[in-house]
Amino acid sequence: MVVRIKNLRVGTIIGVHERERRRKQDVVINVELAFDGRRAAESDRIEDTIDYQALADRIAAEVGASRFFLLEKLADCVLRIVMEAPKLQRATVEVDKPNALRLADSVSVSASARRPSRARPR
Questions:
Q1: CATH number of 46's domain
Q2: How many structural domains is the chain composed of?
């Protein structure tokens, strides 16, 4: 199964220019979480799935407190947080910085990770 957190908006300090570091600006975070959801589908229990509310809260808290210069670093930070979820098999995160360029809606950086698959016993 795949769970997506779409357009999580968080204010943070991001950018290399002095004007970008004076006050928080919004970034938009999208996360895709792939996991084996069969157990959750059967049990209907939060303990058997990925708690996306807790994950979104953690991402918002960490990003809101960060002061990175580069989107690449911020995307890596979000990916590391996401990959701490033990049930997760793979994840992709995308961090958008709206209005980073005068002629574009936004600039974004994405990062992905996958857990090594475990060998199944015969």
A1: 3.30.1130.10
A2: 1
Interhelix angle 52-65/71-82, rounded to 10 degrees, is 150
Residue 52 lies in a domain: yes
Spatial distance between the Cα atoms of 75 and 63, rounded to a whole number of angstroms: 10
Instruction: Give the tens place of pLDDT for each residue, 47-105.
Output: 999 999 999 999 999 999 999 999 999 999 999 999 999 999 999 999 999 989 999 99
pTM assigned to the model: 0.91
Spatial CA neighbour of 90 closest among 120, 59, 111, 69: 111
Domain containing residue 20? 2-102
